[in-house]
Amino acid sequence: MNYHFGQVSIDKPKIGYTGNCGNISSAVGPYAIDEGLVKAEEPITRVRIYQTNTKKLIIAEVPTEKGYYNEEGDYAIDGVPGTGGKVTLHFVDPGGSVTGKLLPTGNVKDVIEIPGMGQVTVSIVDAANPVVFVRARDLGLKGTEIDEIDASAEIRQKLESIRGRVAVMMGLASSPQEASEISQDVPKMVFVSEPQDYKSVTGRIVRKGEINITARAMSMGTLHKAIQLTGAICTAGAAKIEGTILHSLLDKNHAGAREIRIGHPGGIIPVGAEVNKKGNSFEFMEAVVGRTARRLMEGYVYVPEKYFH
What we know:
CATH architecture of the largest domain: Roll
Shape: globular
Number of strands: 20
Number of helices: 5
Strand content: 25-35%
Helix content: 10-25%
CATH superfamily of the largest domain: Diaminopimelate Epimerase, Chain A, domain 1
Radius of gyration: 19 Å
Distance between the termini: 30 Å
Structural class: alpha+beta
Number of domains: 2
């Protein structure tokens, strides 16, 4: 089945169709089963999803009972209330989702010039969605900040300046200013640091021994209180690419592990990532994540016929 996604701007009458949403992707399989678009097979139904924005394949393994998605279960996700039936998503060959290249510039690291900041080192990776990564310390941050980000217009402007510059480098906008207007959804912006102890938004203390990397992601100009699923996939993949700023933050004992555990404001998200090195290039084979989904509402919107002419 096909799935097309639109990202609605928070403060502008715009919808972005460039990238995908990983969390919305988790609902596509259950919806397809419940609506009879895919034949249910108990106890697990595999739904093959063609993501039309990124032209990538997602395979959803959906728990099924009596012909429908079984949303009851004990799978818990940090930052999401309650538990539910585990939907396992396999993002097949997620590299080059928007630009066609896992490393859009061909480099594992780039040094860019930002007005008022000087030179900043970034890693630009395109997997599930394109993301620009920067070290927290290069922004004058520790990397565990949460409330401080939304409280500081200066920090947000620094992050947006970097994101806008990279959007131009990727060909998504003609200027950083235009990127803020027409390409708010991609690239995503994530600043990272080594594993650290911190308090999550739920009050839980996340210990550095529980995670492999600490990450804070921006979403449409504000701090994401967790991390976008596509952003987490790209973060895990980038951490597996030798030479990126993320790979240098990993403990050597975890550099070769399949699962990367990312510490975000809401807690921890584990992402399975398989990245192969071929000569001087890298190939992101697959990312695997667990999610939950629940139908929230159904309804009809009535639009006058005159508006269709």
